[in-house]
Amino acid sequence: MSKIKKIKSRQVFDSRGNPTIEAEIFSDNDKSALAIVPSGASTGSHEAYELRDKNNNEYLGKSVFKAVENIKGPISNALININVSDQLKIDEKLINLDGTEQKKKLGANAILAVSIASCKLAAIEANVSLFKYLSKSKVFFIPVPLLNIINGGLHAKNKLEIQEFMIRPENTTSFSESLRQSYLVIKNLRSMLEDTNVGDEGGFAPNLETNQQAIEIILKAIEKSGFKPGEDISICLDVAANELKKPISVENYLELIKKYPIKSIEDPFKEDDWISWKKLSTNAQIQIVGDDLFATNKIRLKKGIEEKSANAILIKPNQIGTVSETLEVIDLAHKNGFKTIISHRSGDSEDTFIADLAVATNSSQIKSGSLARSERVAKYNRLLRIEEELGNSAKMAKI
Ligand code: PGA
Ligand code: ZN
Fold first, then answer.
1. Is 201 a catalytic residue?
2. To bridge 321 with a disulfide, which of 64, 99, 108, 306 should be the other Cys (CB 3.0-4.6 Å)?
């Protein structure tokens, strides 16, 4: 069994041009793996802590040099000579070394970079694809993509209050066909817009006045592409309600669902408004997704399961900080009939870990933005390669 020989770390940049952290781990077998941690804009208060050098003006308080030093110093010291494939032990050491609830001492960004890089290194050492290495099963499903094709909220400089207007292909038998259908809708939408600038997640960021206008133009693009809205392709929203100036009521949501072919709503309410979550989730017959509500945290998910606050959870590894804890939350969700949606962050990178994670965990869906900006497309391209690797056995996940 190969062991961790050396851990390097450096500051690199994310897709918004902000500093972020990269870890590079070497085995005594002379193999190595890299991981870059993404960063959110609409972050919830229950997320693990992202350590930045707030008092250093060189990078406007956004550099991650302290986190880099934490990897080079205490984290390296704790992990040298540990078995590369002992992910649980690696993550346990990281968690204990930090010792705080939200990973404030070392920074969840430092911890996660190392956790993911060691996981990738273990797959390389085992000479198997990352998704196979991470999986307990021999049967694999490709996640259905939710493509964020109109960006609003904190991800764009327009007036749209809802953060993400997504499309989801409903009935395709392959991932490549899901992307083909989405591609047509995106191209038709582009032809209908005057302003084709894109937002942080690669979706268009047009100067539309209302949420309804955004939904209606997407419906037109779906029809123009020859698909039936709701049957072939549905609309999914991420409201990111923590950031809303004026809350949307349960009744408003129920009207919206009645009027439009919306099949999924993420973060319809603020992260601690458990009462409204329960009310909507028990009255709406669609997917209700907790992102900031759960923050990929098993304690918050347990509460949500008991209270029936939602029926799906968004999974962002950097909300919790290690691969093992991420897997544990996914397991808990599945055991309780919750769907899992693996997600990028609005500040992301060329790292495609989440694509493998989605397949490995039999997650039914993945969110990685639109078909624009290479950091978004990289995850979809990775899934195309996985689909090819699986050949005839590749099946789409059930939604
Ligand atoms: P964030 O947005 O990465 O800016 O938090 C993504 C989301 O809310 O799903
Ligand atoms: Zn969200």
1. yes
2. 108
